[in-house]
Amino acid sequence: MSRIINTEDPGKIRNQQLRTCAEILRHLSTKPELDDEAKDMIAHLVYCLRIIGETIEHASEVWEKRNYWVKAEELRRDWDWTHKMTHDIEQLVKSGDWVKFPAILAGLFQHVGNIKIKKFTRESDTWQGAYQKLVGEL
Predict the structure, then answer these.
(1) How many helices (H) and strands (E) does the chain have?
(2) Which of 10, 21, 67, 97 could share a disulfide with 55, CB 3.0–4.6 Å?
(3) Nearest of 23, 65, 67 to residue 41 by alpha carbon
(4) pLDDT band at 3 (very low <50, low <70, confident <90, very high)
(5) Please, what sign has the CA dihedral across residues 109, 115, 120, 123?
(6) Phi, psi of 89 (to 5 degrees)
């Protein structure tokens, strides 16, 4: 039997989701008005941030199993912004108060703004229908 290698480690997943967030923010910054596609993009940010949070929790648990308690807590503290940002965007979608989004967008941009995007690699079907799905959950 051969060895199974998992190529989808938490760091890789986290980087993919951060890249998706960065691309969505770039698309949103070019939109002149808030249309249905923009709402889908905003809702998809919630799903990306949730996945990032899950990878952080998984990585922290691995560090804790190795008795690296300080490192696990440091990792959680460094990425705690994902939970706050997820909550803020969920509340925005729930209330429909879209005038608050530019402030949330600026807060998110400070975390993913350093990601260089030379070419958009995410298709619009990535976030299509995310708004209705999120509204159904809330």
Answers:
(1) 6, 0
(2) 10
(3) 23
(4) low
(5) negative
(6) -70, -40
